[in-house]
Amino acid sequence: MATPTISTRPSSPTPRPKKKELPYPLNIYQTAVGKKWVMAVTGIGLLGFVFAHMLGNLKIFIGEVEEDGVLVQDIDVYAEFLREIGEPLFPHGSVLWLMRLGLIAMFALHIHAAYTLNKLNNSSNVRYQQKTDWLASNFASRTMRYTGPIMLAYIIWHLADLTWGFTDALYSNDGAAGPATGEWHHGDVYANLHGSLGNPISAIIYIVANMALALHIFHGAWSMFQSLGINNPRYNAARRYFAAGFAGLIFVGNVSIVIATMADWV
Amino acid sequence: MTETATLDSKVPEGPMAEKWDNHKFKIKLVNPANKRKFRILVVGTGLAGSSAAATLAELGYDVEAFTFHDTPRRAHSIAAQGGINAAKNYQNDGDSVHRLFYDTVKGGDYRSREANVHRLAQVSVDIIDQMAAQGVPFAREYGGLLDNRSFGGAQVSRTFYARGQTGQQLLLGAYQQMMRQVGLGKVKLHTRMDMQELVMKDGEAVGIVCRNLVTGEISSHSGHAVVLATGGYGNVFYLSTNAMSCNVTAAWRAHRKGAFFANPSYTQIHPTCIPAADEFQSKLTLMSESLRNDGRIWVPRDPDEKRIAADIPEAERYYFLEEKYPAFGNLVPRDVASRNAKTVVDQGLGVGPLKNGVYLDFAESISRDGLDKVWERYSNLFEMYERITGEDPRETPMRIYPATHYTMGGLWVDYNLMTTIPGLYAAGEANFSDHGANRLGASALMQGLADGYFVLPYTIGDSLAPKLGTAPVSLDDEVFIEAETEVRDRISKFLSIKGTKSPDYFHRELGKLVWNYIGMERDQNGLEKAISEIRALQEEFWTDLRVLGGTDTINSSLEKAGRVADFFELGELMARDALNRAESCGGHFRSESQTPEGEALRNDEDFAHVSAWQWIDENTPQVEHREQLDFVEVPLTQRSYK
Amino acid sequence: MSANTLSLTLQIWRQEGPNTTGAFETHNVSGIPDDASFLEMLDVLNENLIEAGKIPIEFPHDCREGICGTCGVMINGRAHGQEKGTAVCQLHMRKFNDGDTIAIEPWRATAFPVIKDLVVDRSALDHIVASGGFVSAPTGTAADANDTPIPKEVADSAMDAAACIGCGACVAACPNSAGQLFTSAKLWHLNSLPQGQPERFRRTEAMVDTMESFFGSCTNHGECSEACPKEISLDFIAYMNRDYVKSKVFNRKLASQK
Ligand SMILES: Cc1cc2nc3c(=O)[nH]c(=O)nc-3n(C[C@H](O)[C@H](O)[C@H](O)COP(=O)(O)OP(=O)(O)OC[C@H]3O[C@@H](n4cnc5c(N)ncnc54)[C@H](O)[C@@H]3O)c2cc1C
Ligand code: HEM
Ligand code: FES
Q1: Is the domain of C20 the same as that of C63?
Q2: C154 CB under 6 A from ligand 3?
Q3: What pLDDT sits at residue A2?
Q4: What's the pLDDT tens digit per position in C175-215?
Q5: Does B105 lie in the same domain as B240?
Q6: In this structure, is residue B472 part of a structural domain?
Q7: C220 to chain A: which residues are within 8 Å by CB?
Q8: Which residue among B64, B67, B160, B189 is best mutated to probe the pocket of ligand 1, counting the most ligand atoms within 8 A of its Cβ?
């Protein structure tokens, strides 16, 4: 842009200095609209992950199946299956690692974008001195910046708890369903889960985190359509239903696992 | 005292239809490479100003644009609702440049300059093309072509419109075109800059002095030519349909520096506005004239009527327009409708709590066409009415009353749009040029854009060409220093009076005088009274004004004081102009000059002229000059709507 | 129509200038007819203040019929007050009750610095337009207007977007102070019309980039559209996002414009 030739005075706002433009496609990510686009795309990936993850976990309701003549928990079969994807073309566990890397990249981008946009918004906004009367935004949309970090913290906890077993000191299980466990065993998802959820504090963490997740999805899965420019007045109403439905499904699905495990129904 | 010698309208020779082309061929041109050596100051960025600034910059001139608004898009042009005329004949109903020209001269009641009007009709066609190319979302037919409507009683459909927001869309078009030049660095835009003085050197306009409305800083700007596109002065009435900040300051400062002010008494009163609700009313809202197509206007016959409208039987209703003008009925022209409403209200027949309106009743059309049809046509107007008054026009009749809407008078300009000060031009509502004594609906937008896009950018070269090689006058020149001092003195004068009454108080009182004596109906007695009462109030103003606050920040009381001071002088001149014009014509109705049926009676023998007033000094009344008007193409006839 | 009058307690933000801190000031007004508009109520207050020798309150206003976009303040937590689709100049006192307390604050955003009291600087919006909010059609170059037929639906939709009055309520109401609704409305107005096609993507990039140099980003809360006196649709923001990413992704030298 040429030099702006609108007379300026002490009250005039100063534009933020323009950053040097990076080569394509990085330049997309340099702008806020582009960042939101990246957020939406990674959001979709994460939605897919959350959905698949939930489906997999629901296998806990299948209970024991026979494998190679031995009765094992189906969920443990599933966990092993994940490691075997791509075999024998790829070594054991490698494809899962690739998927994990993809997931980590999506999280990293999503979180970095969330952080920088949040910073931009904070520097653009001046708070009112009176109570603002929100009309269109909802609790979910206004708390994206909180439900996100809550989930981040939760994910770390979740990994520590079940993937790495750092927290198995907290495990407690009376053994009503399956063996009593006080410590974490690699690959024994079923037992670890019962161990972890045997502790009510841990169960509460899982439930609260899923509430945050549901809220995040309730707004996010609607918002991503707008960010991507997917807007057709004919179907616009469906976007809201989709988001609400998705959020509800994930919440019910995940929480049912928690409750069923706690109640030793599975 | 009258003189004619000084007014040269510079109307080109030749047949009417060829005058403009001949003229464009003959006027002096500035070579494209030289255009950037000329700096042009455009004051006002409404339709006329934005379009002029954009076009001049496109041509290559160095343009600086000034507006007291915070952005050009706020100019009062934004408020025009109805539409814009153009002789496109897209409806194939026999329209033509000649017909638009003819209608405009006749509509102006034979008090406009034929050659200017003809040019206006000619370029009207280009305006629509230009605005469509700018992306103005004009209303369209399903086939994708432009839609037209008939407006203000015209016999053809030549009005283009964009919903009820034509002025907004046109202004945004012109504003965007100018902002493109701002972005390109070709136009320097000064917002919140109020022109306070015109600077003259050796009898020519060489610059302006402005006050920065945010910082209070007084600054000078110099250029090779100055264009005033500063709008109309309807706010001299206090209550009008104009935006609160419309004023006469820029034009008046120029007038005091020698620019003649033409036909100040020609003001247009619009019949369908919402009447004032209380003493705190700050402005009046226009309801589109189209409502008169379906609404019937009446008042109760009994001045003491207490019943609500629906309960008053047919026989006790006075449909005054239908009774007096059986042929045109409720569709008589604006001035006739307005005057008759005033007559019945003055007789004590007015309706509403303040008895200051007449009914505009849709009951009959609702029962005839059905509520849906009527709602479809007027829903936005009905909603607007309800928002303002809290009444639903579907249930109770609207109340309407006339209000000031447009000012035909303004700075006198020649065919080139140059005022009597060399180098000073006036465009849009600020000049007097094309509407004579009355303006047709949808013609003001047309004129503003005609001036700004298609006339001024070409005619301005005529006065610039001889100045090639000269630099704009230096800001250190004493003429600028003096002008700045004048402005500072004036401002400190307002602050130093330290009286008891606010600028708004004086404005309101002045408005009452102007409305009562120089409003819809004028007579000698009232006009003489107006002059003496305005003077008395003006004296009070200069001794009892209270302006608080400082000069180094935004201070709307201070701004207002300046506006009101100028309105006082203008109001007096309006009265004197109306007094001198002892005939009725267009929006100017002298009760001494009417037909036995009470219609306006023109006197072409004595008054077929423009009255242009010259400022002498503070203590001497302005002198009237006359430009004789000749009607060659459109023969003089008396209007009749019986 | 009634002749009721109201007495009100007003908490109005007063601020000397852009670099000073402001505070609420409490004023009482009485005898306000309920037919008066909100701004006329402020007129009355100002007349009272002047009479009492106090400096009147600066508030933005001009046309007072909801079209110029000058007016705009935060009233009881809502931009332009509680009436939907109504600019504050069109808000009437009959919508309030006798004895109400009304808080009045200027628009707030880093890009809208307070000039004085309730008046803010909205020139950032002009910068957005100057960077690309136009069709480059110099005067005198236009072909006959009917040479380019435009489907009525397209013209109507462009008009829906073009109805924006530039008041800045969208920014004021947005928790992020984003300029998306304003920018996208102008973009859709021009990008949807045939006249706007040649510059469509250049315009989108330029305007978005300028917007982002002043304003926050969009979280799709929808407060803007809700506050908008012209009820401009949120859909336009989606169209803007689409055009923006398209313009970044496609190489227009090689790919076609669309
Ligand atoms: C309610 C209403 C409805 C209307 N409807 C129609 C219609 O349907 N059709 C039609 O043809 N006409 C209509 N008109 C008339 C028409 O809108 C105006 O006559 C026309 O827009 C005037 O344009 P302009 O450019 O001359 O002035 P304006 O648009 O008034 O612009 C004046 C400019 O000058 C600036 N200015 C003034 N003084 C100074 C100063 N001292 N220093 C710096 N800047 C200054 C202002 O900031 C502004 O930018 C209507 C008018 C009203 C009031
Ligand atoms: C499984 C995890 C997650 C899913 C499924 C998810 C999904 C989404 C989706 C779909 C959006 C909408 C994007 C858009 O509007 O275009 C979104 C927005 C957002 N996400 Fe996430 N997200 C997840 C994790 C996170 C985490 C860990 C954080 C933060 C640390 C986070 C912070 C945000 C924020 C702040 C927004 C709003 C951004 C804005 O519009 O300003 N999210 N998320
Ligand atoms: S004052 Fe013009 S929109 Fe409110």
Answers
A1: yes
A2: no
A3: 40
A4: 999 999 999 999 999 999 999 999 999 999 999 999 999 99
A5: yes
A6: no
A7: 141, 219, 222-223, 226-227
A8: B67
Prior bond of A88 cis (ω within 30°): yes
Query: Which range marks the domain in which residue A168 is found?
Result: 40-61+141-262
> Is the distance from CB of C11 to CB of C24 less than 8 angstroms?
yes
- Interface probe, candidates B70, B178, B184, B221, chain A, greatest A C-beta count within 10 A: B184
Pair C130, C244 in one domain: yes
B431 in helix, strand or coil?
Answer: strand
Nearest Cα residue to atom 40 of ligand 2: C219
Q: Domain check: are B155 and B291 in the same one?
A: no
Beta strand pairing call for B225-228 and B39-43:
parallel
The verdict on residue A46 lying in a domain is yes
What ipTM was estimated for this complex? 0.97
From atom 17 of ligand 2, which residue's Cα is the shortest distance away? A220
- Whether B214 and B248 map to the same domain: the answer is yes
Number of domains chain C contains: 2
Q: The tokens 């945010």 sit on which residue?
A: B214
Do B254 and B275 reside in the same domain of the chain?
Answer: no
User: Is the CB of C69 inside a 6 Å radius of any atom of ligand 3?
Assistant: yes
Q: How far is C63 from chain B, CA to nearest CA, in Å?
A: 4
* B579-583 LR contacts (CB < 8 Å, sep 24+): B579/B524, B579/B527, B579/B528, B579/B531, B580/B611, B580/B624, B581/B265, B581/B607, B581/B611, B582/B524, B582/B606, B582/B607, B583/B607
B638 interface with C at CB cutoff 8 Å: no
Total number of domains in chain B: 3
In sequence order, which ranges of B27-147 are alpha helices (DSSP H)?
Answer: 32-35, 47-59, 97-107, 114-133
Is A84 domain-assigned?
no
The one catalytic residue in B39, B119, B334, B439 is B334
The reported pLDDT for the residue numbered C254 is: 62
Q: Give the residue from A5, A8, A9, A12 with the most B CB atoms within 10 Å of its CB, the best one to mutate.
A: A5
Q: Which of B147-161, B169-183, B209-223, B415-429 has the weakest average pLDDT? A: B147-161
Q: Does residue B605 share a domain with residue B549?
A: yes
Mutate: best of B182, B244, B398, B564, partner C, most C CBs <10 A:
B244
d(CA B487, CA B464): 28
The pTM of the full predicted model, rounded to 2 decimals, is 0.96
Domain membership flag for residue B641: no
C175 and C215 together in one domain: yes
**Residue B392 shares a structural domain with residue B426:** no
Residue B642's pLDDT band, with cuts at 50, 70 and 90, is low
Q: Are residues C108 and C69 part of one domain?
A: yes
Q: Which pLDDT tens digit goes with each residue over B271-311?
A: 999 999 988 899 999 998 889 888 999 999 999 999 999 99
User: Residue B290: which CATH number?
Assistant: 3.90.700.10
pLDDT of amino acid B641: 65
DSSP-based helix, strand, coil % in chain A, nearest 5 = 65, 5, 35
Nearest-CA distance C237 → chain A (Å) = 7
pLDDT in tens, B572-583: 999 999 999 999
Q: Report whether B216 contacts B550 (CB < 8 A).
A: yes
Of all protein residues, the one whose alpha carbon is nearest to atom 10 of ligand 1 is: B442
Q: What is the mean pLDDT of chain A?
A: 91
- Chain segment B509-519, per-residue pLDDT in tens: 999 999 999 99
Which is it for strands B39-43 and B62-66: parallel, antiparallel or unpaired? parallel
CATH code, domain carrying B508: 1.20.58.100
Q: Is B111 a catalytic site residue? A: no
Please tell me which of the candidates A5, A9, A10 has its beta carbon nearest to residue B185. A5
Residue A12: its chain B contacts at CB < 8 A? none
Q: Is the domain of C248 the same as that of C178?
A: yes
A111-122 average pLDDT score: 97
Domain residue limits at B574 = 489-609
Residue C160 has φ and ψ, to the nearest 5°, of -55, -40
Separation between Cα atoms, residue B219 and residue B210, nearest integer Å: 5
Mean pLDDT for C15-19 is 91
Q: B571 and B506 share a domain?
A: yes
Q: Is C30 part of any domain?
A: yes
pLDDT band at C255 (very low <50, low <70, confident <90, very high): low
Q: Which ligand is nearest to the CA of B45?
A: 1
Q: Which chain B residues in 165-204 lie under 8 Å from chain C, judged by CB atoms?
A: 165, 168-169, 172, 175-177, 179-180, 182-183, 189, 191
What domain range includes position C43?
Answer: 5-116
